[in-house]
Amino acid sequence: MSGPLYRDPDAPVDTRVGDLLGRMTLREKVGQVNQRLYGWDAYERASSGGHRLTDAFRTEVDAHDGMGALYGLQRADPWSGVGFADGITAADGARVADEVQRHVVENTRLGVPVLFVEEVPHGHQALDGTLLPVNLGVGATWDLALYEAAAEAAGAELRARGGHVALVSALDLVRDPRWGRAEECFGEDPYLAARFTEALVRGMRRADTAVVLKHFAGQGATVGGRNSAATELGPRELHEIHLAAARAGVRAGAAGVMAAYNELDGLPCVANEPLLTGLLRERWGYDGIVMADGGAIDRLVRLTGDPVAAGAMALSAGCDLSLWDACFPRLAEAVTRGLVPEAALDAAVARVLALKFRLGLFEQPYASGRAPHETPYPVRELSERIARASVVLLEHDGATLPLGPAARRIAVLGPGADSVPHQIGDYTAPQRPGTGVTVLRGIREAAPAGVEVTHAVGCALTGADLSALPEAVALAAAAEVAVLVLGGSSARDAETAFDDNGAARVGSATPSGMTCGEGVDLAELSLPVAQLRLIDAVAATGTPVVVVLIQGRPHALPDLSRTAGAVLSAWYPGPWGGRAVADVLFGRAEPEGRLPVSVPRSAAQLPVFYNGKDHRYRGYVDQPASARHPFGHGLSYTSVSYGEPTLSRTYVSLDSPELTCAVTVTNTGRRPVCETVQLYVRRLSGGSSWPRTRELRGFARVRLAPGESAEAVFDIDADTLTSVTRDLSVGVEAGELLLETGPSSDRTSGVSLTVG
Predict the structure, then answer these.
(1) Cα 325 vs. chain centroid, distance in angstroms?
(2) Within the chain, what is the greatest distance between any pair of CA atoms?
(3) Rounded to an integer, what distance in angstroms lies between the CA atom of residue 212 and that of residue 109?
(4) How confident is the model over 472-488, as pLDDT tens digits?
(5) Which residues contact 305 (CB under 8 A, 6 or more apart)?
(6) Alpha-carbon dihedral sign for residues 508, 510, 513, 516
(7) Which residues pair with 672 in a beta bridge?
(8) Are 265 and 235 in contact (CB under 8 A)?
(9) What are the distances in angstroms from CA 618 to CA 600, 604, 606, 624, 692?
(10) What is the CA 680 to chain-centroid distance, rounded?
(11) Is residue 492 within 8 Å of 504, Cβ to Cβ?
């Protein structure tokens, strides 16, 4: 074709990148590695009711004769200050995105399209964006196919509105549930997180959506569970636990990773050359982009004393694309001062341009010209399905649930019973009035004709105020069953204060309804005093009690076996989660969820994750060291028995470690069940480091009718038996292993395998 080679769609991406890069000035190159402007500052509401581009946006484009990426064009939330009065709805999304793109393409020398980067923590964080349950709820489903379908549908929704790149939390683990961002994690286990990360990337890629995975690396292990604090991780702990999901995401085709705020051994991730270049680029061979977390490069001025040197430090370490900071826009100065070679800038620009070429932006930069991506299910349906599958039955007396005809009057109590904001988690856009189904409404809609459903708040979400308790107790005393909806909230509002990166600023002296979310870390994990008193007071009436926990982290739970007939965790189940919870309560759906995290007895016993090092320590004198409810735990409305696992071979060689492990599972009760059969590997001898208690290495969801048996068969290969070796590479090591199967991490039976 005639014209520049970079415009030739038939030319290889590397060739097109090289041609375009060779035409760029230093100023234009710097523009391609920056996304300085907040996207919501690129437009304003016009008097006609539409939207128009702002002078701030035009100035930003002119500054570098182009723009690498624009973050959050359609973001809406209390931090951005964007709502329905002035924001971009679904009806306007594609049109406004095209107006922004058209200005960049038609008013710059080379016409390089801009990447639209959007937050997709659990659905697109935009007005009319469809919300999914938070990641911790997704992890509780243990259903990879369901989440992959939801990721595809969410990606398709994003692309239809003009977005290109989804920022999604996937790499962090809940190693300390005091951390406010626990809700953004798939769980505490590296294997589970890795499989969900793969499902996320596969689904998004089918919708032609690029994924940047957050956060790289180790952010879930900060000291004291405090956000953005240091991580005191040895190299082996980092590789064994905190890099597994990143390895999986890179292998699945993630477009990028986001360098985290935390530091590793004194060096912030965004400036950590051994991490971003030595490991990610050289050892893993990764060619995607590395994006800095918001303002993270500016924090390096604390080390360099100079913003120009701070930008050079991050670029030299392997960071390709900034986010909001003031340092990367000065990279031209860093090059001319000799602080960083222009070749390093060229490498970063090349990776950004390669992503734009792979997304087809040079051929079709506008959303209005793209054919819509058809998905098998709409996002809303998938959101409700995930919510239903995420409900974990933690405790049950075998009689209280499911609710039956005898429950003619149901008292629905608690601060979370009738609140959609309490169900939807952090990083959410304002919802249209009437959106969603609360637990109270879900119960009222699901209750048989003639059943009376009463409601009282009972207590505040936080604190010890008991002024609302008498009404709740009276309603409970007059009911056949009391459903207490307790837990926490990540709901932000107009009164919430924020740090400069959008994290909530909540302190003991600042009244807030938030008990979870970014910036909301807790020292004490137990439920607030008023909620515990509500449980005791309602139980004292003699009315059977069901506790439903709406939460973004596993709260430390007391022994509720004598006060509650059933305890369920519904996490933050999304806008329609109330219907999902009601379906489980009335037995329209079986409880399928399994814990992706361990539930502690108290914050004092942390850490409580199941896969710690197997030193056979005795625990504490004053309380058990074991979790209240272990990783993988979840009850059903029936009973299930497990046979002993069997292996196709009891010895495998290092060169060919393939075999199968099978276990027969039988539904011995009267109701159907979806049983999550779990496979763990436990090292008995050999290996290059001290072994962990056990490690999840497989799971299978098996549906059984009453009386039915089925065999769960696991294919065991090098990936199943792999471990981090002495030189921190990944491989199979000789020794004696125990392959264990069971319904949870603390209820397993094993069979020995020799690897040699």
Answers:
(1) 25
(2) 84
(3) 28
(4) 999 999 999 999 999 99
(5) none
(6) negative
(7) none
(8) no
(9) 17, 16, 15, 9, 16
(10) 23
(11) yes
Alpha-carbon distance 278 to 217, whole Å? 14
Cα–Cα nearest to 187, from 696, 730, 728: 696
Tokens of 502: 């959008």
Q: What 3-state class would DSSP assign to 166?
A: strand
Residue 536 burial class via C-beta count within 10 angstroms: exposed 0-12, middle 13-18, buried 19 and up: exposed
The rounded Cα 215 to chain-centroid distance in angstroms is 10
Q: Which of 63, 76, 77, 7 is nearest to 35 (CA)?
A: 63
Q: Which of 249, 248, 240 is nearest to 213 (CA)?
A: 249
For tokens 């790289």, name the residue.
216
**C-alpha 728, offset from chain centre:** 26
Q: Is 223 exposed, middle or buried (0-12, 13-18, 19+ CB in 10 A)?
A: exposed
First to last CA, the chain: 59
Distance CA 165, CA 187 (A): 24
Would you say residue 506 has pLDDT above 90?
A: no
Q: Give the strand pairing for 165-169 and 210-216.
A: parallel
The average pLDDT across 261-288 equals 96
Q: In this predicted model, what pLDDT tens digit does every residue of 434-445 receive, in sequence order?
A: 999 999 999 999
Q: Give me Rg for the CA atoms of the chain.
A: 26
Q: Is the model's pLDDT at 1 over the cut of 90? A: no
Place of tokens 């300085």: 36
- Tell how far CA 219 is from the center of its chain: 13
Beta bridge partners of 490: none
Residue type, 576: W
Residue-wise DSSP of 391-425: -EEEEE-SSS-S--TT--EEEEESTTTT-SGGGS-
Contact 449, 514 (CB under 8 A): no
Instruction: Please list, in sequence order, all residues whose beta carbon lies within 8 angstroms of the beta carbon of residue 18, skipping any fewer than 6 positions away.
Output: 350
The helix (run of H) or strand (run of E) holding residue 735 is strand 735-744
Q: Please report the DSSP string for 538-575 in residue order.
A: HHTTT--EEEEEE-SS--B----TTT-SEEEE--S--T
- In a 13 Å sphere around the CA of 467, the CA atoms on its Cβ side amount to 3
- Neighbour tally for 706: CB within 10 Å: 12
Torsion of CA 680, 686, 689, 695, to 10 degrees: 0
Question: Which DSSP category does 111 fall into?
Answer: -
Site of tokens 């005191």 = 232
Structural tokens at position 279: 């490991």
Q: Give the tens place of pLDDT for each residue, 287-346.
A: 999 999 999 999 999 999 999 999 999 999 999 999 999 999 999 999 999 999 999 999
Cβ–Cβ < 8 Å for 572, 580: no
Q: Using an 8 Å Cβ cutoff, are 204 and 165 in contact?
A: no
Side-chain-facing half-sphere of 244: CA atoms under 13 Å: 25
Quick count: other Cβ atoms within 10 Å of Cβ 493? 11
* Cα–Cα distance, 332 to 429 (Å, whole number): 37
Does an H or E element contain 663, and which?
A: strand 659-667
- CA distances (Å), 42 to each of 58, 213, 568, in order? 8, 25, 44
What letter does residue 635 receive in the DSSP assignment? Answer: B
* CA within 13 Å, CB half, 466: 14
CA atoms within 13 Å, Cβ hemisphere of 384:
17
Q: Residue 2 pLDDT > 90, yes or no?
A: no
Asked if 578 contacts 414 with a C-beta cutoff of 8 angstroms, the reply is: no
Distance of CA 189 to the CA centre of its chain: 13
- Strand ranges, E, within 286-391: 289-292
User: Structure tokens of 626?
Assistant: 């074991």
